Amino acid sequence: MPEADLQSPGPALPADDVVVEALRCGDEDMFAALLTAWSPGMLQVARAYVADEHTAEDVVQDAWVGVLRGIDKFEARSALRTWVYRIVINRAKTRGVNDARTVPMTSLTTAKEDFDPAVDPGGPRGGSRGADDPLAPPRTPVAWPSPEGEILALEVHQHIERALGSLPARQRVVITLRDMQGYSSDEVCALLEITAANQRVLLHRARASLRGTLDRYLTAQSGKEPTR
Question: Among residues 67, 70, 84, which one has the least CA distance to residue 181?
């Protein structure tokens, strides 16, 4: 696992023990480097639990305060970044407890929908896939309109963000950690304290939902007349 988030600029950070010692000594440059490297990913994770971007930003700021206040108690039982992300998740869950989009973390192991997939993870064994199957590829390749390709790319990005926001919180946070931040399955299980089987189902359902939404959107776009 790289020390910097996959989407964050800047060089990788030093080893955890170096970072921790620097923070304990009040090294402002090291703290600034951490803010740059980890804040974007922390914001994505917080956003999976709370209702809007502004609240997510507040959660991240509060989490950083918690990191500075608690760094002397860090015992290196996990990676520093995992410890920091747990603080973010705990703060986000607390802030989002009254938010309609929030699902308590305990439901990660109890929600029926997590174990009742809308599609067979292995796919149908015979015949052609139905049009409503989220895993079914388009029947014909979807052509990206040109010369409007850049505009469409922006629209696709926005469409994916909306689709991600519509996922149940437990699916949203798993796909955020796995596909947007590069955490491994084992790391996500440890971070969220869920089983490997549950993690796989959550990730499968999230990916299938996003893939189906995107396929339907691109297919609809390919049938439109070019803008003049």
Answer: 84
C-alpha 157/C-alpha 134 separation (Å) is 19
Which amino acid does the sequence have at 173? V
The first and second tokens of residue 142, run together, are 């979807």
Q: Give the 3-state secondary structure of residue 139.
A: coil
> Residue 207 and residue 141: Cα distance in Å, rounded?
20
Helix, strand, coil percent values for the chain (each to nearest 5): 60, 0, 40
- List, as one string, the DSSP characters of 34-87: HHHHHHHHHHHHHHTTSSSHHHHHHHHHHHHHHHHHHGGG---SS-HHHHHHHH
Count other C-beta atoms under 10 Å from residue 2's C-beta: 11
197 by DSSP, 3-state: which? helix
Phi-psi region of 193 (alpha: psi -120 to 50; beta: other; left: phi over 0): left
Q: Measured between alpha carbons, how far is 31 from 96 in angstroms, rounded to an integer?
A: 27
Tens digit of pLDDT for each residue in 94-136?
887 655 444 444 444 444 444 444 444 444 434 444 444 444 4
